[in-house]
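On clarity, I found the account of how folds are encoded harder to follow than it need be. For illustration, here is how one protein appears when written out as sequence plus structure tokens.
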Amino acid sequence: MLAGLLTTFRHELVSAVLVSAFLGVIAMPFKRIIKAYTEVVGKLDAVHTELTAQRTNCLDTLQRQGDKQVDLLGKSVDVLSEIRTDMKITLEHLRDKA
């Protein structure tokens, strides 16, 4: 029974196998393209995550350093103010001597 069906529909069976193989060969590049695309998207997401983490760390560091710089600038202004006062006293003393 099965042998009779195979001989009867032999051409249809061969053509179905050939068409399936042909469609598989045509679909193969598309599958590779889709796979490569998903890999690239995954890598891009990883780069985005890393850059976001680096930016956050950088902003935190700048914030901490900014607070320190403000304190140091305040101290520098105080020292310069004392120097100005000392220079004023020195100039007044030199004028009195002249």
